[in-house]
Design goal:
single chain, Glutaredoxin, 6 strands, about 20% strand
Amino acid sequence: MLTMSIYDFKAQDNAGDEIALDDFDNQVLLVVNSAPDSRYGEERAALDRLYQKYQAQGFSILDFPCQQCLGQRDGSADQPTSMTDELSRLDQALSYPRFAPVQVNGPDAAPLFRWLKAHDGTRSGNLLGPYCKFLVDQRGEVVARYDSHHDPSEVEQGIAALLDGPVGLGR
């Protein structure tokens, strides 16, 4: 039986184009459920700094906006103009790849997020807040899950270890 990896998925980018995640093959990835909300400006800035620091070494961030964890709208791609406007403004300020809004919990959760949660090793289930992060190694396997309360330096240590060490070091 073949084991799935993140590279078996496709996702719609913020322009509406379908992107095969195998375009990120052999990279260390940080998959994030972000919030299009001004309260999280420092979190976005910290992610952008990580991306700038490690991108040339084979690191990327895959950012999936979701309002679901904020207790706001359903987080689907069919969002009101205010969310679309906020995402457009954010897209101009960030350098890492942003995708179309998704749901991350419940029966309508995006297949990618269902897979990430099933393979993160924590059995934590639903994402309880914005900016939960899944660290994925170069083979496309989830090696760590960082909930929104984790310190960014802890996330950076995981990224650096994967970039510096053997593939799958985090397991």
